[in-house]
Amino acid sequence: MSDILPDYAVIDIISRLPVKSLLRFQLASKPWLSLISNSSAATFDDQNASTPLDFPFRKPYSTNAHVIGSCHGLVCIAFDNCEDIVIYNPSTGDYRKLPNLDISSGDTRYQYGFGYDSSTNDYKVLFAKRSIDHSFNETQFKVFATKAESWKRIQLNAK
Fold first, then answer.
1. Do 29 and 95 lie in a common domain?
2. Is the pLDDT reported for residue 83 higher than 80?
3. 83, 110, 118, 139: which has the fewest C-beta neighbours closer than 10 Å?
4. Angle at 91 (CA atoms; ends 85, 95), nearest 5 degrees
5. pLDDT the model gives residue 116
6. Span 105-109, mean pLDDT?
7. pTM of this prediction?
């Protein structure tokens, strides 16, 4: 790869670079593209290294954030008990705020999921709300598909 540095030294150097730089450096040459794209070269030795994320979309009065999940470099984040849900690309700073969920407060529990559906080539967010009122016990499911740009309620048949 390099006439000056051995490959292990180059890999050590690039493993310490920010993602934005790596994305730019892939365009420098075919060997760089191959090296950076190779998953075995993309392992990071310093597991304690961290960079605080700056959320450009966060409301000034938001008090809590919950990471729903991450997939292919995208991070799905819920703010303030699902009032805002965002899919965020930290390497580019791009984000997409999802349409609001019609959820009521009360004695409920929420669960989320985020992933990629390869059969439809689409990212999806799963939202589950469980009412735990003593007289009423119901679970509702909704799925957000990025291509459809809407929430769809999922009905489960009880057996």
1. no
2. no
3. 118
4. 25
5. 92
6. 66
7. 0.60
116, 72 contact by CB (below 8 A): yes
Residue 87 sits in the same domain as residue 148:
yes
Task: Give a yes or no: residue 2 inside a domain.
Answer: no
Whole-number Cα distances in Å, 9 to 2, 4, 146, 152, 155: 10, 10, 40, 50, 55
Q: Which H/E stretch holds residue 142?
A: strand 136-145
Whether residues 70 and 141 share a domain: the answer is yes
Q: Which tokens go with 23? A: 């994305």
Could you write out the three-class secondary structure of 83-100? Answer: CEEEEECCCCCCEEECCC
Q: Which domain holds residue 30?
A: 7-42
Amino acid identity of 51? T
Alpha helices in the chain (DSSP H): 7-14, 19-25, 30-37
Q: How many distinct structural domains can be found in the chain?
A: 2
